[in-house]
Protein 1
Amino acid sequence: MPAQYFTERTFAFLRDLAANNDRAWFDANRDRYEADVRGPALAFIVDFAPRLREISQRFRADPRKSGGSLFRIHRDTRFSADKSPYKTHTGIQFRHEAGKDAHAPGFYLHLEPGGCFAGVGCWHPDAGALARIRDAIVEDPAGWRAAARSGPFAKTYELAGESLTRPPRGYDARHPLVEDLKRKDHIGVAELTRKRVTSAGFLDDFESLCRAGAPFVRWLCGAGGHAF
């Protein structure tokens, strides 16, 4: 029988954390976090690894508790007015081997009460990486359209993320793909229901989502000079 990773207990913990976002509550409920959130997420990463290798040998499924594919639950509050210590969602990123952080090309799973989704692409790439993507769109518009506007990707994902209000400096404001040149993120998002995420077949489902997004990620890797 297919394994079930995420359950209603996963989302119950995240809801309760949102209502009690402080260290004392978290310490008192740490066993719940390990059993219902982190444990299932790490098992999901382990079991997805061989499937990811079939999609691409260049992406990593790293099941370490810290520093791997699972994002830490602690928020970085140094530059935020919101000092809540914990995230109220769980994020898993299978990133490219050349990447050191969340801005690398990757496949992503986001679990949050009322807001689950699968994501693919590059989120907030640095200035150099973003310029290379924009240059590749200008140099290969047909390739970009094929990757971002057709096939399984276009049927599965919506382009999302932040954009500039004006064309970036150095690019033609009249370019037919100017709206894509304005993008600060190059990501596709597929919304997921909680029922879908908690189903026993979700590992297969997520693999299908990643396969649908693979041509888009492959194009972005090529734009950045990375093998896929």
Protein 2
Amino acid sequence: MLKIESLQNEKIKKIIRLRKPSERREAGLIVVEGKKEIEMALAGGWEIQEFYFCPEFDRADGRRASGCPLSGVGEEKMVEVSREVFQKMSYRDTPDGFLAVFKNFKNQELNNLKINKNIINGRRANVCPPSRTALIIILESVEKPGNLGAILRTADAVGADAVIINDSQTDIFNPNVIRASRGTIFTVPVAIAGVKETQEWLKKNKIKSFSATDKAKKDYTRINFKKSCAIILGSEDKGLSDEWLEAADEQVKISMNGKTDSLNVSVAGAVMAFEARRQRSL
């Protein structure tokens, strides 16, 4: 097993370069920090390239980050590093001493989504059983990594088939997306596509679309979410584009009793997605 104590080591420099989206795309690699997130990536079928750990960090459960706590990771992929080196690689204020590099198998094309299947792009995914109607969450121009990560976590919690991202404003493998999603970015199928392409895909798969807007007349609680459907959410500041507002099958709103007229996009997505889950459980 390799041990690294120098900040000038080329492997460490590579990890630091991978903080940039352009470097990740060019290398076809992503960096995942945190034991929970690494476990989720492995569960989603992602291929680990290198595993770094630092015994000097205490984990949340009070134990040290000694050795590799993950099954299926050979010693040839393990690298022990000093505290100083790990702090240089880490993007967290309170790291747990675990970090891994994964190969990006690039499954983010819309045509790769298999609705009501247990696989996506040939790999197992945490999606709904084949007998259930499809539930899709569509995001247009969402900018904040934390919001994207939170919506992915909601998608996982409600058993959504997929999250489709239109006009992506943030790299889906941004470290803050991975952290906010608690690793569900690796288990919830994600596709990146244009609005027109997404609309055609919905029609092809007979999925009804509901655009969320405060200008709608019908409240989300009056919508039938039991059939195959897509919940469409817009950016934090501008909401949905006219292209989606005009093309969606129906516009819906979340009625507000206070002085504000809208919710954070991740909260709005959670409210509507869990209503769909509630209706489907009846």
Protein 3
Amino acid sequence: MSKFPVWFQPVNFDRNLPKDLEYRILQIGVYTGDATEWLLNNRNVVSIDDVDTWEGSLEHQKGTPGYIDFQEIEQYYDSRFRDDTRVTKYKMTSDKFFANDQGKTYNFIYIDGDHTALQTAIDGLNAYRVLETNGILGFDDYLWDMGRGPEFNPKRGIEGVFHVLDGLLNVQEIDYQAWLRKV
């Protein structure tokens, strides 16, 4: 059992990710790797590229009520997946990851990284470029509110992706998470 808060809710994954596919996955924002573990144990995963800075974001900075020691988080993540050849860890920003285009494509991309509206939109638009046709794009925290204004919340960024890519993505589900399929 993890000593870290667990926010991962597998019900949406189970509902939106068909069991009969082989998955090539990209995750932006990984935290302790709870989603990684669930995917490895419950779907046919060929590969998972996990991208995270393991430095936290605005809501986790030292001196805030939500402070988390991300060095411990990263060590815990490493202890869980260092020997699984299906998992590749990228310790960097999502911007740097997408700038280092490796020609890879994915059939599932999950975004739970920087929660600001701007970065969420940038991650969604970058993800679209490497998402295969019929691939699934999931955003966490659609309804999350940092309490500092809409520019600090993912919802506005996710809705920006909806507007820019209108007609190119079909909505599968929108609740606390947003699940889309590339057409």
